[in-house]
Amino acid sequence: MTAINNPSPWQQQSWNSLFSYIQQDRIPQALLITGTSGLGKHALAKRFVYSLLCSNMHADGSCCGVCNSCLLIKAGTHPDLIQIKPDDDKKSIAISQIRQLLTDTYLKPQFESYRVLIINPADAMTTHAANAFLKCLEEPTERTIFILISNKPNKLPATIISRCQKLSVTLPEKHILYDWLSGQGIHDNQETRLNLVRGGIFTTQQIIDEPLLKQRTDCFNDWLAIAKNRIYPALISEKWQKLPETELLNWLISWTSDVIKCACGSNQAQLCNQDMAKNLQELAQQLHLKSLYKLYDHLLSSRRQLDTQVNFQMMLEEILVQWQQLNGRT
Question: Where in the chain is the domain with CATH 3.40.50.300?
């Protein structure tokens, strides 16, 4: 239970707020945890759940890790912990899932503490699902707690938000992240890694994932190869279409943004991708700023379409063809 009982350094203040609910015996009926992606909001919620359901919670709020409830949570079989997320082949939480949740809440919790329902990401609920969930909040059942987790709370109906206690997990100060990286045994490219987190390009766990960082570098080299007319966009879009969609578009957006910064006279210290500065500066010298802005707008529009049933490979090919043409290659 070490990972559960030891939050990341930037989560400590948020954990103190959650623990105060337990100390004061004022557990909110509905809790909305927000913050940018990658700050460990779900892990924080799970720590809260462990402590709420633990039969022998320690004085500091940490769970014992050995009681029946803790072991059931760890095994994923606790009857009073229900987690709702999009089905594996879906991007949204359907009304049928919320209706099942409603059915579950009609019964009393099987243990003597609470029943906890985690919805993550809460903003993935369809309009019909959100309307159905509102009924849960309006007609709370005995000892039932809802925990909603969201990177995009503005997508949630105001009627739901207004019925929740709010907890915002914020980005830590740079020195905290530096110390954390050093504690993970990572000392190279710390500035770039931190910029990627603070720019929302990577999560805190992704910046210590060396294979993923290598994948980013490989994709950047493909992007350069298209600019130099060494490979066809169609081949790269086919290669990339199996990569994580949001992450890949975030990389493309950050590279384009950095080229624009270079074209506007920014120095290396102002770039997000400082480890790629030389190539980005070279690209900026040969590209038209107006065309870069058009590509940047296209990328932002494409990212917004990821919640739809868009053909990701075709989207990528269209982006990469525009990138090729921008570089004067047809």
Answer: 2-168
Q: What is the pLDDT of residues 142-178, one digit of tens each?
A: 789 999 999 889 999 999 999 999 999 887 788 888 8
What band does 5 get if pLDDT is binned at 50, 70 and 90? low
- Is this model's pTM higher than 0.85 or not? no
- Residue 124 near residue 91, CB atoms below 8 Å: yes
Angle at 274 between CA 270 and CA 277, to 5 degrees: 95
Classify residue 124 as exposed, middle or buried by CB count within 10 Å of its CB (0-12, 13-18, 19+).
Answer: buried
Please list the residue range(s) of the chain that carry CATH number 1.20.272.10: 209-326
The CATH number of 2-168 is which of 3.90.1300.10, 3.40.50.300, 3.30.70.20, 3.40.1370.10?
Answer: 3.40.50.300
In contact, 132 and 103? CB cutoff 8 Å? no
Instruction: Reduce the DSSP state of residue 285 to 3 states and report it.
Output: helix
Asked whether the beta carbons of 9 and 179 are under 8 A apart, the reply is yes
Q: How far apart are the first and last CA of the chain?
A: 57
Residue-wise DSSP of 86-102: --TT-SSB-HHHHHHHH
* 39-59 CB burial, b ≥16 within 10 A, e <16: bbbbebbbbbbbbbbbeebee
